[in-house]
Write a structure and sequence with these properties.
The structure is a single chain. The radius of gyration is 46 Å and the shape is rod-shaped. It is α/β, with parallel strands linked by helices and 517 residues long. A hairpin with a 5-residue loop joins strand 9 and strand 10. It has a five-stranded parallel beta sheet, with helices on both faces. Strands 7-6-10-9-8 form a five-stranded antiparallel beta sheet, with helices on both faces. It has a five-stranded mixed beta sheet with strand order 14-16-17-19-18. Helix content is 47%, strand content 22%. Helix 2 runs parallel beside helix 3, helix 12 packs parallel to helix 13 and helix 13 packs antiparallel against helix 15.
Amino acid sequence: MIPSPPKILIVDDEKAIAILLKHILKSQGYDVRVTNSGIEALYLLAQEDHQLMITDINMPQMDGLELTRRALEAQPDLAIILTTAGNNRDRAYQAYQLGASGYLLKPFDPNEIRIYVANTLRLRELELAHKNQLTQLEGQVQKAETQLKRVVSQLRVVLWALDLEGTFTLSEGRGLKDLGLQPGQVVGQSALTLYSHLPALQETLHRALEGEAFTAQVWVENRLYESHYAPIRDDRGKLNGTICLSIDITDAHQLQAEVAQKTRLASLGELAAGIAHEINNPNALVLINSRVITEIFADIAPILAQHFRNNGNFKLGNLNYTDIRDDLPQLLTHISESAQRIKSIVSELRSFVGGEDKPDRSCIDLNLLVHSALPFIEPLTREATDQFSIVYAEQPLWLDCIPKRLEQVIINLLQNACHALPDKSAKIILRLAHDAKNNCQTLKVEDEGCGISKENLERIKEPFFTTRRNSGGTGLGLSVSTRMVEECAGRMEFESTPGVGTTAILTFPAATQGEPS
C-alpha cells in the first residue's frame, strides 16, 4: 500500500506568495492546500489532520503568532514554518517559543524551500516516532511497576524510595501492615522526621542518601528488617535519591535466637547437673556437722563459763574466750544458714535441668488451686503490702496441669512482685479469668512495683539472670517457672512499665472437667 503524501497547509494573505509556495511544494509530491485567512486555516485544521503548516507572520484579523498558538492547541503534533521579512526576526523567535519548527525569510529561494520543508517533515517524523517509542516505554514501565507492586503487595516486604531531601516518593508492600501503615500513606512525608526517634535507622538513611549501596539490619517499631539500599541516578549519573527493599526477618531472627538459646540451655543443663551433684554431697556433710557442732557447743558452753569463772580468761584457737564467747553461736548459725542456702540453690538447679521426678497431672479448677495455696501466699504478701487482693473467676477454670508445679510458679511470681514493691501501700492483685474468645484460662499477677526496663524484660527468663544478685537472687526462679508452665501446655508473658509496675500473665488451654490428658 502506497502511503499518502504529507498534507501541507499554506496560509498567506498575499495570494501570489501562496500560489508560488503551492507550486513549489506540489512539484515535490505533497498534498497542498491554500488559504488566505488564519480563521479559515483553523477551520481546515479542525476538519482534517495536516503534517505541516506554512504561515505568514503578518496577516490581518489573526496574525501568524496567534494562529500558531491556537493551531498547536488543536493539533499538538503539527509542524509549523513561519515566513517573514528580514525585519521581523524578533517575532519569528517568539514563534519558536510558542512551538514553531522554524521560519523562512522572504524573498524565497525555491531550493531552500524544498530542502527546509523536507527536513522539517523528516524531523517531525523522527519526533513522532520518538514520542511513540517513549509512550510505549512509559506504558511498559507502568505495566512493570504495576506488576512489581502486585508482587510486593503479596510479600511481607516494604519497597520504598526517598528523594535527596529524605522525602518518601514510594511506599509499597504487605510489610507496611506490621508498621500500622497503608501503601502510599507516607509518600510526601520526611523519613528523617518520621523516624527521628530511631538513631540506627537515621544512620542508614544518611548513608543511603549519600549514594551508598549496602545492606543493613535495623529494628523499626519492634520489627527487624534486612534492608537492601541502592542509589537512584539519572541518565548523567547524578544522584536523585535512594530505593530500598526491606524484608521482615523478625520471625527468622527470633527462631535463630531460640535455637541458640536452647543450645546454650542444653549445655548449661549438663553443666548445672554436674555442679548440683558435686556440691550436694559435701554440702550435706556441712549441714549435718554444723548441727552436731552446734549441739556440742551448747553442751560445753556451761563448762567453759565455769572454767572462766574459776581461772579467768583463756585461749581457744589463739583467741581469748571472752572475745568469741558471744560470737561463736552466731558463727555456727551462719554456717548452717549458708549451707541451707547452698541446698536451696542446688534444688533450683535440679529443677532447672529436670532432675526431679514429675508429679502426676490432673484436671483442676484454677480458682481452687489458688485458694489451696493461701497458707503459703498470705504470709508471703503480708510482709510486703497492706493491699493484696485476689479476684477469682465467676466460673470454674478447669485446666490440665501438674498442680504442685503450678502452685510453685504462682508463689514464685508473688515473691517477685513483693520484692518489687517500694512500700506496703503499693498493691498486688492476683486476677483469675476465662478468655472465651481464645478458650483459655488466665492468671495475672499485677504489682505497683518499680517495673522492668525493656532491656531486662527481654532477658528475665534467662537462667541465672537476676537484678537481685546482691540480695540473694539466683536468676533461676523464672527460668524454672517457664519450664513448669510449658509442662502444663501454658505460656508465661510479662508486661511492664518502669516506675509504674509489672503484670505477669499465665495462659493455659481450657480443659473439660475430669478429663486430664
